[in-house]
Amino acid sequence: MPGSVPAVQRVTAPATADRETEARAWLGALRATGAERDEAIRRLHELLLRAAHFELRRRRGMLAGTGRETLEDLAMQSADDALAAILSKLDDYRFESRFTTWAYKFAILEAAVRTRRRAWQERELPIDPDAWTTLPARTLDPAEELLNRERLGAIIDAVRTQLSPHQREVLGALVLAEVPIDVLAERLGTTRGALYKTLHDARRKLRTAIGADS
Amino acid sequence: MTEPRRRHEHLVAGLLGPSGAELTCEECFDLLDVYVDSELAGEHADERVPGMREHLAGCPACAEEHDSLRDLLTTLR
Where are the domains positioned within chain A? Predict the structure, then answer.
């Protein structure tokens, strides 16, 4: 039909327009002054607190024994820090998602990181230099197929011969001991991004060594 | 799949990671909202944010945060 709008555009265009209108309203209010800004911040903080509570509830298994008051503090700190991050990054919002989705991710991140760090705060990092030596015996069922045993053996050989000591330490902590990356970053005085880069490079060396990338 | 086999596969996947090109953790956080909104809208999220699926397969922390954001929005909508 000449001049007709394709069905997909008819469905998505109003949704996109609504999303942009909503986002511009949020941004306008948060960049305003006085009572308008105060009210926008109050509403945004309320949303962030709800997201932080949601995240803490999901992770209550990691927070066993944590009192209600402490949980409330964790949620409030997460919402406060998320709000501060959002207000400093308003110019980074690009209208590619709903403004509230963009905002919620900051609260989820803050609450998730706090939960992981709290769950590990009394624990030593289980970094064992001999872990690679004993790994096959600990993880493989005797009845495991020969092919799988050989493959794991080749990976462990590559861990020993191809990786640097730091790469072995990071890979061991994150993959063997399943230390959360935020916890390891905090203990090693580095960032999550830097650790993941180390992990990524180590994995690439291992894949190359066993021919998994070819 | 038996439990020992599942653990073995999990271990090997963790050691080798995803083979395709993937985002960094910073890029993942930067685009997580776009990816999740696309998923929930039934759009082609992997085409809109290439490398996200691979990163989520290789980074348990980012994967947890992705799942949380998606589930929060699902609960609220």
Answer: 7-120, 131-210
Determine the Cα–Cα distance for residues B57 and B22; give it in Å rounded to an integer.
9
Inter-chain touch B16–A212, beta carbons under 8 Å: yes
Tens-place pLDDT, residues B29-75 = 999 999 999 999 999 999 999 999 999 999 999 999 999 999 999 99
A131-210 in CATH: which number? 1.10.10.10
Question: pLDDT tens digits for A185-196?
Answer: 999 999 999 999
Q: What is the DSSP string of A46-92?
A: HHHHHHHHHHHHHTGGGGTT--HHHHHHHHHHHHHHHHHHHHH-GGG
Entry pTM: 0.89
- Please indicate whether, in this complex, the C-beta atoms of B37 and A152 are within 8 angstroms of each other: no
Chain B neighbors of A148, CB-CB under 8 A = 8
CB contact under 8 A, B33 and A101: yes
**CB spacing of B15 vs A206 below 8 angstroms:** yes
Alpha carbon of B25: minimum distance to chain A alpha carbons (Å): 5
Specify the number of domains making up chain B: 1
Domain that holds residue B30: 3-76
Looking at residue A33, the DSSP 8-state letter turns out to be -
